[in-house]
């Protein structure tokens, strides 16, 4: 592999209690979207799970203390990448069931480190129709999540990942109802996905009922495998954003990190290099928030890192230094 490998070691430390890890204060001025510099931490199953969704390295059999210790190590590794944000998956089974007692350890470890945490809902693997699976359990999940973390200024809430089963009007209706239901959450801590595969934020941005919320955009290189022009990719990104850049967080974008591509080099015939260069150029130029997919997901060729170690003695190795370099460029680091 032509990519350089860099070892990222996450150090252990004292365990914080849930209360200690849940600051109640709200920043006087909400951070701009450009302050969201993050990675996704994903289940090996791509976060679509019929049972509890479990980020790589964690287990439903772990206690809160073990989950916290493992998460502290992994979040420490993300911090050494330059990230300050992590996007974590949730589903009703994770939150309404027994895993919630320990899964809170991942959220608490991240906020204790000073990370922003985006909690996003994924539908089950046996559905994948782009719609909420079950309204009652979804409502129960969000009631529990917002009750636990509405006062924690580091925690952000994303009602649905890629709502592609709805028309634009249907989705904005769903989102507007959710926003009005959870009024105790400040709107600047709500992250509403764009239309279809979160691929176009303009319809959401234009809805006055969603004024003040953040917007979640997704974009991937495999959507146009024949595009090898950086300028073409940049134009595509901007067309999906319109005049809504100040509210937009690109919370899923990624490309191959285990195949030796040099993202700092010439594009040649690689649509992935063109895409990553365009994405990071656009993030930097427009001041977008960004959360790479994925920072860690076992078995994913897009994963920026590989998990090393056993038990709670965990660390991360970088799979492609040039990919990380491009993130640093986007993040102005």
From TrEMBL:
<feature type="region of interest" description="Disordered">
    <location>
        <begin position="18"/>
        <end position="40"/>
    </location>
</feature>
<dbReference type="InterPro" id="IPR001547">
    <property type="entry name" value="Glyco_hydro_5"/>
</dbReference>
<comment type="similarity">
    <text>Belongs to the glycosyl hydrolase 5 (cellulase A) family.</text>
</comment>
<protein>
    <recommendedName>
        <fullName>Glycoside hydrolase family 5 domain-containing protein</fullName>
    </recommendedName>
</protein>
<dbReference type="GO" id="GO:0004553">
    <property type="term" value="F:hydrolase activity, hydrolyzing O-glycosyl compounds"/>
</dbReference>
<dbReference type="GO" id="GO:0000272">
    <property type="term" value="P:polysaccharide catabolic process"/>
</dbReference>
<keyword id="KW-0326">Glycosidase</keyword>
<feature type="domain" description="Glycoside hydrolase family 5">
    <location>
        <begin position="56"/>
        <end position="293"/>
    </location>
</feature>
<keyword id="KW-0378">Hydrolase</keyword>
<feature type="signal peptide">
    <location>
        <begin position="1"/>
        <end position="21"/>
    </location>
</feature>
<dbReference type="InterPro" id="IPR017853">
    <property type="entry name" value="GH"/>
</dbReference>
<dbReference type="Pfam" id="PF00150">
    <property type="entry name" value="Cellulase"/>
</dbReference>
<feature type="compositionally biased region" description="Low complexity">
    <location>
        <begin position="18"/>
        <end position="27"/>
    </location>
</feature>
<keyword id="KW-0732">Signal</keyword>
């Amino acid at each position: 592999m032509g990519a350089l490998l860099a070892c990222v070691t996450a150090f252990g430390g004292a365990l914080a209690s849930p209360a200690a890890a849940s600051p109640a204060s709200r920043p006087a001025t909400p951070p701009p979207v450009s302050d969201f510099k993050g990675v996704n931490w994903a289940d090996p199953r791509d976060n679509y799970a019929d049972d509890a969704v479990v980020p790589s390295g964690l287990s439903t059999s772990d206690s809160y203390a073990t989950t916290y210790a493992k998460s502290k190590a992994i979040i420490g590794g993300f911090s050494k990448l330059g990230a300050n944000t992590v996007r974590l998956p949730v589903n009703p089974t994770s939150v309404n069931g027994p895993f919630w007692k320990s899964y809170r350890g991942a959220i608490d470890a991240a906020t204790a480190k000073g990370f922003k945490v985006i909690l996003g809902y994924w539908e089950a693997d046996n559905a994948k129709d782009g719609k909420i699976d079950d309204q009652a359990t979804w409502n129960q999940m969000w009631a529990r999540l917002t009750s636990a973390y509405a006062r924690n200024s580091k925690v952000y809430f994303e009602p649905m990942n890629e709502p592609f089963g709805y028309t634009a009007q249907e989705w904005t209706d769903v989102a507007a109802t959710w926003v009005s239901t959870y009024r105790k959450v400040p709107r600047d801590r709500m992250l509403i996905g764009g239309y279809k595969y979160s691929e176009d934020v303009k319809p959401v941005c234009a809805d006055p009922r969603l004024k003040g919320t953040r917007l979640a955009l997704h974009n991937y290189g495999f959507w146009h495998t024949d595009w090898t022009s950086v300028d073409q990719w940049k134009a595509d990104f901007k067309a999906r954003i319109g005049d809504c850049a100040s509210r937009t967080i690109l919370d899923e974008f990624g490309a191959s990190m285990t195949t030796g591509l040099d993202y700092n080099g010439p594009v040649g015939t690689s649509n992935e290099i063109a895409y990553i260069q365009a994405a990071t150029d656009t993030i930097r130029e427009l001041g977008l928030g960004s959360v790479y997919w994925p920072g860690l997901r076992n078995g994913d060729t897009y994963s920026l890192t590989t998990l090393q170690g056993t038990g709670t003695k965990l660390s991360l190795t970088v799979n492609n230094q040039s990919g990380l370099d491009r993130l640093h460029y986007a993040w102005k680091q």
